[in-house]
């Protein structure tokens, strides 16, 4: 028997969740970008370790939802957390606590899940706001005990609510009468460096329980092939366009053909307006060619076989509200 657990890796958008998941797995299973809302699906990364196996659910970052897609992403994150054995909340501790950070603390304080790890990520940055996050947690517990709620406050006000003076009264135990192991375990992480996530891995295995392995030992992800290809294309577009089209770009992989010595895939790049099409294509098709070549290189490394991409750009007004397209992209699975 081995130690096994499913882990929901949650937190606000761009807190470093995908980078942490990749570091824990030891291979790239989630796309990484400085652009917010990079992860749009719940991706499963599988950690193989002498102690056992962890199945990591890399969820979309919680954010202020705008439109159908934003609401679906938030719902994915919350439902993944509800169904996992362990909740791993990742905070970007190089910044002061934001409204979404406090929202996750409030959720944990209210629901009191048995196994929680709070990760203070980016511990190599200065300043590092560890005390503010711990004070924010104490405040969330006290607000729960007092029946108060800060969900309606702005991020600036909410962050201020988390701060207390040095003579702050001793916080009440968030789990009165509960065993010590039920309280959240705080861990620092530098997920961008080799070994920087070791303490997180140890903490997660500390909560795992004996059981049968959920996946074969040589599997690092069970993420569907079409969605993995779409994510690789979208990541390359994010790195090329930066903030120019941050959230209005959608990728639908229409088909993947196994040709034996290689795969060929046809994908559509969706934009909302005709004026966005030249941006995605680039002068003399320079942007779309660069994205295609870069994605093909990465996909070959990921799958171990050449992947030939054929990309087409299509103007699809309000695609983020199109239920059929959202389903093709994997955003509606079991959620509506």
Structure keywords:
336 residues; alpha/beta; Rossmann fold; GMP Synthetase, Chain A, domain 3; 2 domains; three-stranded mixed beta sheet
Summarize the structure in words:
The structure is a single chain. This protein has 336 residues and is of the alpha/beta class. It folds into 2 domains: 2-211, P-loop containing nucleotide triphosphate hydrolases (Rossmann fold), CATH 3.40.50.300; 225-328, GMP Synthetase, Chain A, domain 3, CATH 3.30.300. Helix content is 35%, strand content 21%. The chain has helices spanning 17-25, 67-83, 99-111, 130-146, 155-161, 198-207, 225-241, 277-281, 286-303, 323-328; strands spanning 2-10, 43-49, 52-58, 86-92, 116-121, 185-189, 209-211, 250-258, 263-271, 307-315. Strands 1, 2, 3, 4, 5, 6 and 7 form a 7-stranded mixed sheet that branches. Helix 3 packs across helix 4 (130-146).
Q: Short summary of the structure?
A:
By secondary structure, the chain is of the alpha/beta class. 35% of the residues lie in helices and 21% in strands.
Write down the CATH topology of the largest domain: Rossmann fold
Number of helices: 10
The CATH class label of the largest domain is: Alpha Beta
Mean pLDDT: 78
By CATH, the architecture of the largest domain is named 3-Layer(aba) Sandwich
Instruction: Give the amount of beta strand, in percent.
Output: 15-25%
**CATH homology group of the largest domain:** P-loop containing nucleotide triphosphate hydrolases
SSE ordering: EHEEHEHEHHEHEHEEHHEH
Topology:
Blueprint: E1 2-10, H1 17-25, E2 43-49, E3 52-58, H2 67-83, E4 86-92, H3 99-111, E5 116-121, H4 130-146, H5 155-161, E6 185-189, H6 198-207, E7 209-211, H7 225-241, E8 250-258, E9 263-271, H8 277-281, H9 286-303, E10 307-315, H10 323-328
Parallel strand pairs: 1-3, 1-4, 4-5, 5-6, 9-10
Antiparallel strand pairs: 1-7, 2-3, 8-9
């Amino acid at each position: 028997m081995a130690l096994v657990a499913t882990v929901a890796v949650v937190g606000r958008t761009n807190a470093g969740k995908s980078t942490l998941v990749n570091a824990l797995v030891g291979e790239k299973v989630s796309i990484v970008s400085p652009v917010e809302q990079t992860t749009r699906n719940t991706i499963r990364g599988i950690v193989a370790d002498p102690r056992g196996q962890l199945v990591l659910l890399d969820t979309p970052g919680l954010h202020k939802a705008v439109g159908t897609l934003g609401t679906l992403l938030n719902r994915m994150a919350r439902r993944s957390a509800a169904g996992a054995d362990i909740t791993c909340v990742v905070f970007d501790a190089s910044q002061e606590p934001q409204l979404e950070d406090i929202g996750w603390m409030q959720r944990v304080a209210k629901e009191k899940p048995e196994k929680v790890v709070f990760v203070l990520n980016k511990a190599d940055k200065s300043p590092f706001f560890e005390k503010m996050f711990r004070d924010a947690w104490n405040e969330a517990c006290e607000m729960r005990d007092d029946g108060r709620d800060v969900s309606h406050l702005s991020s600036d006000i909410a962050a201020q609510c988390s701060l207390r003076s040095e003579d702050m009264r001793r916080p009440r135990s968030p789990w009165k009468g509960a065993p010590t192991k039920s309280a959240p375990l705080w861990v620092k992480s530098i997920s961008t460096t080799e070994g920087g996530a070791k303490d997180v891995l140890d903490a997660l295995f500390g909560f795992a329980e004996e059981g049968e392995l959920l996946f074969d030992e040589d599997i690092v992800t069970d993420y569907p092939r079409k969605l993995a290809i779409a994510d690789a294309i979208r990541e390359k577009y994010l790195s090329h366009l930066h903030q120019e089209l941050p959230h209005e770009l959608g990728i639908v992989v229409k088909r993947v053909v196994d040709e034996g010595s290689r795969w060929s895939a046809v994908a559509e790049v969706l934009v909302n307006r005709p004026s966005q099409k030249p941006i995605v294509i680039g002068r003399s098709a320079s942007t779309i060619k660069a994205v295609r070549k870069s994605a093909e290189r990465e996909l070959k490394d990921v799958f171990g076989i050449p992947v030939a991409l054929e990309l087409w750009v299509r103007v699809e007004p309000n695609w983020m509200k199109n239920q059929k397209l959202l389903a093709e992209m994997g955003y509606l699975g079991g959620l509506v």
